[in-house]
Predict the structure.
Amino acid sequence: MFHKYIKLALAVLITVWSVYEFSLGHIMNGISILLLAGIFVFLYFKNEILLLVFLKLRKQDFAGANRLLDKIKNPSAALIQKQEGYYNLMKGIMTSQTNLTQSEKYFKAAIKLGLSMKHDLAMAKLQLAGIAMTKRRKREATNLIAEAKKLDKHNMLADQIKQLKDQMKRI
């Protein structure tokens, strides 16, 4: 994994090389090299390790996803703000099985840093609502469930919201 500024520097250097190839009249070489620069720009905005973590999570390989997340040593330096939000979201999901206090910190950091998609933000708020409910903070859990329901426009989390509301009634 390259640092985020190294990725941009490589993209700039490769673009300069591409311009040089264009000036020599090697059009196909210039286009190919320009596409290579595009890969580094893409990886600046979408971190390669986070992409692999999402693939591991789709396959339900939580141990592998956690190992990949541990490879990111200093997330605030290596990732842009949205990527750091997703890093915290993934770490929160990983630690939610073992340490609720640590998981709550990760989810709050993910919400504070921001997530690109509304349903991811809704999932983070729903996870926080579940943690608040287990810690007997009913008012906070109710507010978080309401916020998650507003953010879930396509009803992707409707079943989970319904389950949490049913559990709230039992408390």
